[in-house]
Specification:
homodimer; 175 residues; alpha/beta; six-stranded parallel sheet; 15% strand
């Protein structure tokens, strides 16, 4: 059975939508899809506002209530029958996210076991046969792995990796 | 630069001493070194007491105040110059341990970066060139890795792996 690493933020969870919600609460205005297109959130806001984003991300509870992308639950349920699935999230920059992330996974993926969770700093310690992730930097160390770049605002200009745009496409390619 | 995974519990941190302290507080008596020799803590206590140990391990704060083994800080500091060091701990069974573990690492190893922490469920997602661990089950999936079994009560009967008995021996073998 091949091993498959699946990322959380901007792959299964709509982290940007939640940042935008918190941003609007703080600054009174949300960013549009057009303003976010092609950018990291922190680079789409005025320079004086970007520091606040790290504060959001390290607030207990922030990662507990993220929306999940459509079809992610059902597709991961099926992937979990065919692959040795690991949920691999580079979460260590924000220690308050760690428990929130385990609880979020427990809520949406009760069929996964805690043995399948991996919260790390740098994914270069992880090797799997396949990986789905929105960050190309998480692919570069992999040996002979099949990679799928999950489309996110910040990666729309990337051309070097096979792409998945939603969980239906993940199902088409991997199931 | 070769990558090196270093375990936390019973490799850098004296988890058993802390369990024993909590056990004594709960049941009025601590286990002796002789009673622990060759055993997991949970198998060294009367059957009715073993369930309490998981409660200890998932109590917030338990993993925050573990004693560190002698010389671990100085040897890891030097290893960190020679290897790409990752601290890899199978912590997910106890979600309340996650933040405690990052704070413990920050206290004793301020020269390590959060990018070097990896808290997982099952270490089979991790590949490094070398690994120091007290659990042989964490070695079996490794490809061409050099492994060092850190001596612990529960593993004294293991004969299949090269062993390190303390951090001075780690230094002799790896530095």
């Amino acid at each position: 059975m091949k091993s498959l690493a699946i990322d959380m933020d901007e792959t299964m969870a709509d982290t940007v939508k939640e940042i935008n919600r918190w941003y609007e609460r703080e600054f009174g205005v949300a960013l549009s899809e057009e303003e976010l297109h092609g950018k990291e959130f922190r680079n789409a806001v005025p320079p004086g506002h970007s520091g606040m984003i790290k504060t959001f991300l390290n607030t207990p509870g922030f990662f507990r209530h993220l929306e999940i992308y459509p079809d992610a639950v059902e597709v991961v349920r099926e992937l979990n029958q065919k692959y040795k699935v690991f949920i691999v999230s580079a979460a260590m920059e924000f220690p308050n996210s760690l428990k929130d992330k385990t609880e979020w996974l427990g809520e949406y993926f009760p069929f996964l076991n805690w043995k399948q969770y991996c919260l790390c700093g740098d994914k270069s310690v992880v090797q799997t046969d396949l990986m789905i992730d929105d960050r190309t930097r998480n692919f570069t160390h992999l040996k002979d792995a099949k990679t799928y770049l999950y489309t996110a605002h910040h990666n729309v200009a990337e051309t070097a990796y096979e792409r998945v745009n939603n969980w239906k496409e993940v199902a088409e390619k991997l199931l």
